[in-house]
Design a protein that fits this description.
eleven-stranded mixed beta sheet; alpha+beta
């Protein structure tokens, strides 16, 4: 029973720390007009807040649906810290109408996520890349 209690206390402390860290980060926002997957979650179209968290070598983005306040953590890796666009954006790869988060392009560089499997592209699938601009939440 002590083990279960210890795990619950550790989980609660971790959730509180991560939640506090997420709200302390600069926030970006975007209107995503289509359903998409990020990590293992499928998210509906809507308004989203995005904030970056860096924990040592691990970098992740927190995506929060502003209507439901549902949060998803998407873990990625910086591939190009020199790719610093003038306008931040969220990039999605859509295969046969199903879209998934592919990258975030920010002033800190490009944070990439796993792209759809190569086999899907080789078998005549319709593939497109969609870039949605991110705006600063400072003006709200």
């Amino acid at each position: 029973m002590k083990t279960l209690a210890n795990r619950l206390v550790m989980f609660a402390a971790s959730a509180a720390a991560l939640g506090t860290m997420a709200y302390g980060q600069p926030q970006m926002k975007a209107e995503i007009p289509f359903a998409f997957s990020a990590g293992s979650a499928t998210l509906p179209p809507g308004s989203y807040l995005f904030y970056r968290q860096s924990l040592g070598a691990l970098t992740k983005m927190v995506l929060e649906n502003t209507a439901s306040h549902h949060m998803v953590f998407a873990v990625g890796a910086y591939v190009d810290s020199h790719d610093r666009p003038s306008h931040p954006s969220a990039v999605f790869v859509c295969v046969n109408g199903g879209c998934s988060l592919s990258a975030f392009k920010t002033d800190n560089g490009t944070l990439n996520y796993a792209a759809p499997h190569k086999a899907a592209r080789e078998h005549g699938a319709l593939v497109s890349v969609v870039s949605i601009p991110l705006t600063s939440r400072k003006g709200d």
